[in-house]
Design goal:
Two copies of one chain form a homodimer. The first copy, chain A, is α/β, with parallel strands linked by helices and about 375 residues long. Chain A folds into two domains: about 100 residues, Aspartate Aminotransferase, domain 1 (Alpha-Beta Complex), CATH 3.90.1150; about 230 residues, Type I PLP-dependent aspartate aminotransferase-like (Major domain) (Aspartate Aminotransferase, domain 2, 3-Layer(aba) Sandwich). In chain A, about 40% of the residues lie in helices and about 15% in strands.
């Protein structure tokens, strides 16, 4: 494995975390008296925007009345450097959701297409397919909560014409991994009419040795798109910035479906500052590990089965009706995940700050005392 | 005319300007020693972001790590109030360009469509049509630089299947008006397969008595979309916020093609603050009138013919090669408009601050001395 490739893997990110000073890893924002609810419903980063990104936004206000072109090339270059490639392989979007939209819009290539997704998985892709001539095939996860690559592959094989395969790894809402070697073996054998969308939104949270990015494969193969976001480890969900990595021909083709000049200037400068801050990733990973430990401890204590989490959220079992549980949580001041059918006996809870997870643990114990979980 | 309708017209905006205090109307930002070029190339607002919008962005940073949902409903409501309608008629976008993209993507309705545009006009619409099955018809402007409604109408009549008609009024790049009564008479007689996109990006700059918005027609007719932007009078080009006003069925249909949750949180709060600031529009109109006067005076002085401007830019004649002129301007430190074929003997120049227009006037006089214009 090349050194550069190595440093892009989740494992390497883990090692990098270990080398940051303890003060960086221990960072949590100063406790604020929260007026609102516990927001554990959208897999956001509780640390907030990186301080450097915050300063960049304030400085960027002097350019707010100008079309956002000055920071676009530097951002594209910084992203390209991060993936050991060149700017022509980078597709910028108004959140990674725009990249998903564009991939779906371009995917049928005028014909009737087949969209193959896991069940459950992140919903945006199937939402975006609605106005286009897609037949959507939902393939249940395996008993180990991985993508059922065998079954998906069979659907792609049977598809008549273009197929779009969406692989969210780690998967949302389960936080579980699908074996990268198996994905790669499928991709390298698939015909070009099968277009792979690899959503790596939670890439930086993964510690598994077998996990890796498909960015290099995306650069070289026209039917592979890797999707990344600034909404998770970089704490920028409100600023809507994401990107795709793809073959230069694919980038050019997909750009035809994108909204012009996205994301906005403030999102661009915040993303650039976040990429240049050496502590953002390590700090986010460390905080996530602390919060996840508190959460999994209370789930274990209460014997609530949970899936192994490789991201900034945990899917755990809930006895009884999920909607009742979610409503009671909301009444108690905690927002937790939406329902993800068909997993209607599980709840997705996002990982917050230490104090927030302790508060959530307290609520769960109350619920147990009331016989609600 | 209803009082509410009256206050939405350009004329009313003009009257409103007169009623603001002189200190508001005279406002120009403090002179900064400009490091960069004179930016007169993108019809941006030289006054910058409104102070209230600036504060709203800085306050909004505490929400930057959360998906931008808290300010979305208030923004939609404020826009609806502005147009005397309800939030279900408002389509939010990442700049008005996203609304144009969505209209084009939705416009063929699966069949082969005809896209009818003026020549020249704003280019985004034809750019967005490229990947879709459109036949694009470019209809030259009349000798008075209005849309040639007769000719466009004939193309729509002959179109076999869905047609999208794009009317930019005032038109970019000419800043000229097309008669609203004639547009209305076409719309009210057209079959539903003809979809009208009325781009009112420069609405607030217009003073002509016969000019008006088509927002009320858009609310009631499913085949009319009015497009507005925060990039011009509101000085938010870098923040990418725009919207559409349409029938509720149309809004729902077009939303299927939009990127989810746009614009971003900072753009939302800036837009909301700008709408609530009573001085933004009057101040922008007054500054534009001052700058336009300096510009048209020097064009008259040098006998450079110019089209009557109803916006924040002026299209004027250039003897000789346009690209040479634009290059020389760039070398001299002034960015002016791109070429707009087929009008290759005209240059589009945006209206800047008083000091900027005086600088530009000086450059033009220099060019005259050199025999370049």
């Amino acid at each position: 494995m090349h050194r550069r490739t190595f440093f892009r893997t989740g494992v390497a990110a883990g090692l990098a975390s270990l080398t940051r000073p303890a003060s960086v890893l221990a960072y949590e924002p100063p406790p604020i008296r929260r007026a609102g609810p516990l927001r554990l419903n959208s897999n956001e980063n509780p640390l907030g925007l990186a301080p450097a990104a915050r300063s960049a936004v304030i400085e960027g206000l002097t350019e707010a009345n100008r079309y956002p072109l000055v920071a676009m090339a530097p951002l594209r270059e910084a992203i390209a450097r991060r993936h050991g490639t060149t700017p022509g392989h980078v597709l910028l979007g108004n959140g990674s959701t725009e990249i998903l939209r564009v991939a779906v819009a371009a995917g049928t290539m005028g014909a009737t297409g087949t969209l193959i997704v896991a069940d459950p998985t992140f919903e945006d892709v199937t939402d975006y397919a609605k106005p286009f001539p897609y037949r959507t095939v939902r393939v249940p996860l395996t008993s180990g909560f991985a993508h059922d690559l065998e079954a998906m592959r069979e659907h792609a094989r049977q598809a008549d014409g273009p197929a779009v395969v969406y692989l969210c790894n780690p998967n949302n809402p389960t936080a579980t991994l699908t074996d990268c070697a198996e994905i790669e073996s499928w991709i390298t054998e698939a015909p070009e009419r099968v277009f792979f969308v690899l959503d790596e939104a939670y890439f930086e949270f993964v510690d598994d040795r077998r996990y890796r990015s498909f960015d290099q494969l995306a650069v070289t193969r026209p039917n592979v798109l890797v999707v990344r976001t600034f909404s998770k480890i970089f704490g920028m969900a409100g600023l809507r910035a994401g990107y795709g990595i793809a073959h230069a021909d694919t980038t050019a083709r997909l750009n035809g479906y994108a909204t012009q000049i996205t994301p906005n200037h403030l999102a661009q400068v915040a993303a650039l500052a976040s990429l240049e801050d050496p502590d953002v990733i390590a700090r986010g990973r460390a905080a996530n590990a602390r919060g996840r430990r508190i959460l999994t401890d209370v789930l274990d204590e209460l014997n609530l089965e949970h899936l192994p989490s490789h991201a900034n959220f945990v899917m755990h079992h809930i006895p009884g009706d999920l909607r009742t549980y979610q409503r009671r949580m909301r009444e108690r001041g905690a927002w937790v995940g939406r329902p993800f059918p068909p997993m209607l006996s599980h709840n997705r809870v996002s990982i917050g700050l230490q104090a927030e997870m302790e508060e959530f643990a307290g609520i769960l114990r109350e619920f147990r005392q009331k016989g609600w979980v």
